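Example complex used in Figure S2.
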Amino acid sequence: MSVENAIQTPNDQILLKVRNLKKYFPTSNGVVRAVDDVSFDVSKEETLALVGESGSGKTTVANVILGKYVADAGSILYKGYEIGNIPLIKRNLLLRREIQVVFQDPATSLNPKKTVKDIIETAINIHYPNLNKYEKIERLLILMNYVGLTEDYLFKLPGELGGGEKQLVAIARALATNPTCLILDESTSNLDVSAQSRILKTLLRIQKSKNLTYILITHDLAVVKNISHRINVMYLGKLMEIASVEELFSNPLHPYTQMLLASIPTISEEESKTLPKGIESKGEIPSAINPPSGCRFRTRCPFVMNICSEQEPILNEVSHGHYVACHLINNMKK
Amino acid sequence: MYENLLTVKDLFVKYKSYWYVYHVLDGVSINVKLGEKVGLIGESGAGKTTLLKSILRVLPPQGKITNGEILYRDVNLLNCSKQQLLEIRRRKIGMIFQDPLAALNPVFKIKEQMLDIIKYAHENSGMNKRDLENIALDLLRDTLIPDPERVLNSYPFELSGGMRQRVVIAMALASARELLLADEPTTNIDVTIQAQILKLIMDLVKKKGLSMLLVSHALGMVRNMTDRIYVIYGGNIVEEAPTSKLFKDPLHPYTRLLIDSAPKILSSTLGEGIKGNPVDYRHPPSGCRFHPRCPFCDQEICRRAKPPLIEVDRDRYVSCYLYGGGT
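Predicted assembly (661 residues):
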C-alpha cells in the first residue's frame, strides 16, 4: 500500500500534508535521525496531538513546519503549497502569519523587560504596519479580551504575572497575526493544574470562535484526552499509531501506546480501571544515532518476535482512521 | 500504634530580600509516623520545598525560621548540637532533590559524588575505599541501573534523565536509613520513565522499611504512593486526610478546586481552574490565605482571622470556616 493511500484523514479538508518527512542532524558522534520518514495529515479546525517521550522527534516535526529547520527529505504541503524546503528567513509575512507557535516555558519566551503591551504590540507592528496608532491599540485590546486578560495587565511586566497569565500573554501574541494553525509545544506542561485548566479552556474557546487548527505537542495524555481530536503517537522519529482520541483510549493497539497509557498516574479508581494493564514500562528510549534495526520499539517491547529485528513494520490501517505500525497487529489481521 | 518519627510544630519561616520580607510558612504542623508514607500537595510557590529544606536545616541564608519546633524522634533539630544534626543528616534522613541535573555536580564523576556521601554515612566503620565503592555499586544495583560500573565512572551529562534520577535516588538512600524526603522526584521526566521511577521508589521504601514524605504537585502520583496527605496552600496546611478519602471526598474549597482542575481521562469536561494568583508572600491576605480566590468566601470572618485546623471526621482535618471553627 502506498503511503499516499495509507494515510487519509477522516475528512478531506486537509490543511497540512506531511509526507515522508526526514530531518537528520549530523553530530560528531554520528547522524541523529530525529525524524525518519513520517507522514500524516492535519485537517482543518481539528486538534492533532503529537505524543511521545522526549527524543521522539515531536518538536523537530513542529520546527520543520515552522521553518526553523529545512526538511532533509519529504514534503510539507500547507494548503497545497510546499513549505518544507523554505527556511523561516525566506518565508514571507503571509506564510508566517498563518502558522504561529506557543512555547513551553512562558518565563523564557517573553522578554522580562517589556510590558505586556509592548510584547503583543511588536507582533502587531510587524504584521500590520499600516494600521494607525488607534487601530493598533484597539486590536491589542481585542486580543487581550480574547484570552481573558483585562486592561489592568497592559503595563505589567512578565515578572509580575503568574505562570498561567504569562502563558495567556504568549497566546495573545501568537493570535496577533490572525493565524490559521497554532502549534502548542508543551504549552501547559510547566503549569500547575489550576492554571493549566484555565489555559486549556481558553484554547478550546478560541479554537471554536476563530476556527483554528491546533497541533498539540505533549507527553501528558490526560490533557490530550480533554482537548484533542486525533493522536499521533511517535517513537524515536517514527509514527507508531494514529487514531482518534476515543479509539486510542478505548482500543490502543501498539504496545508502546499501551505502555504510555498504563503509565498515566490516575486520580481515581475508576480511571485506573479504564487504562490497559499488564504492560509495564521498562527500559529507556535508545539513542537516535544508532536506532534499533527493524521496529524501533523492539528493545522495550514485551511482545518482541523474530521478525521485529529484521523488518520494519509499515503503518497499516486496521479500522477506519486507525493506523498502527506493528508486526504483531499485522500478523493478527492475516 | 505508630510512633511519631518526624513532627513539625507551628513552623514559621520567612525570607528576607533587600526590600521585602516574604512570610512563607505560616504555622505549619505536620507529622510523619514510623513506616508511614505521607504526601504533601500544593501548587508551585506554596512552600512545599521550603518546608523540606527547613526540616534538613538547609534553607538558603536569607531564609529564617522564626518560630516553631522540628522534632526528629525526640531531638529538636532547631536547637540540637551541630554533631547531632550532622548525624541525622548523614545516617537517618535522605533527600531526593527536584532537579537531578542540578543536584549532581557536573565536573565530578558519579563515583566521587557518591563516595563523598557514603564516606560520611559509614564514618568510623573502618571501611577502606574498596568497601565504600562496593556499597556504592550495591546502591546503584538497588535502583536497577543497568551496568552500574559504567555509571559509576561517568559524568552526570553522560547519563540520560532517568538514569540521573536513579543516581540521585541511590545517593539519597545512602543516608536514608529511616526517613526519605522526596521533593518532586519526577518533574521533567517522561511518563513512562516516571512510572518506572515511582515503582522503584515504592519498592525501595518497602524493602528498606523507610518512612517517606513525598512532596509534589502531581495529584495522580501522590495518590498512588501515599497513605495520608497534607494539602498546603500559601504556607498553610489547609487539609489533612487519608489518601483514599481525600480524593473521593475533598473538603476544603482549595482541595476541591485542585482535584477538579486536574485533567481527567474519563470525562472530557475540563475543570474551572482556580481564579487569581498564588499568594504574594510580601503582603499575604489577612485571615484565611485562600479567601481572595475562594468561591465560597462570603463570611467576614474569612478575612479577619485564620481558620484553625479542626477535626471534622476521624483522621480528617480541615482549616475552613465552612466546617466550623468560627465563633
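The longest strand of chain A covers residues 14-27. Chain A touches chain B through 44 residues (CB under 8 Å).
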